[in-house]
Amino acid sequence: MYEESPLSILILPPMNESTAADAKEYYSTTIQEPLAYTGYYTFPYPLTTELLKMEGIYDSELLTDIPLVKFKEYFGADAVLFTTIKKWDLCYMVIASNLTVSIDCVLKSTSTDQELWKYNGTVVVDLSGGNSGGGIAGLIASAIVTAVNTAIADYVPYARQANYRAISSLPYGKYHPQHNKDQNIEFIDQTPPEESETQ
């Protein structure tokens, strides 16, 4: 990242490995903002996805074999962001409920095809009603609160949190005051132990 110092990032449509069919649609509304706040120029996501659709490309899975230099030629992008939705799950057990959003991010250079940065952002939210006490009445109240919270759970704010958590480990871009001043900042690796690789 510090050697290539990309200025502009093209965000590709997310890949979805979760069981939620609508995850891609919701998630895609949350990724551009954190990148822009980190100091990068981001191509307007709705416009780029529409251009890709006009070329018959609806999923990022179709782009994995395309040389990334093509994105530099067509869009002028210095880097391309690949995102994968790993989890977009709601676990409901009457008196307890959890919502999990987990996103993998990989940024690749359009000049060298090399991986410049990668990270995982995960958010787990407890939607249960808490311990209401009061025996059976308390359990019923807790179950009702959990059911209501689960029914109205909105993934988008949590996807946004996951994105900010992941993007916070990305070195600041040229349009941020901290550009080239953040080399010594440490961050927490959220990748589960079985998935993490030795760097």
Give your account of this protein's structure.
With 199 residues, the chain is α/β, with parallel strands linked by helices. Helix content is 29%, strand content 24%. Strands 1, 2, 3, 4, 5 and 6 form a 6-stranded mixed beta sheet that branches.
Sequence stretches where pLDDT stays below 50 over 5 or more residues: 92-96, 129-153, 193-199
How many strands?
A: 6
Beta content comes to: 15-25%
Q: Tell me, rounded to a whole number, the average pLDDT.
A: 76
Please state the CA-atom Rg, rounded to the nearest Å. Answer: 19 Å
The helicity comes to: 25-40%
Terminal-residue CA separation? 15 Å
Q: Give the number of helices.
A: 6
The biggest sheet amounts to: 6 strands, mixed
Structural class: alpha/beta
Q: Give the H and E element order.
A: EEHHEHHEEEHH
Could you say which overall geometry the principal axes of the C-alpha atoms support?
A: globular
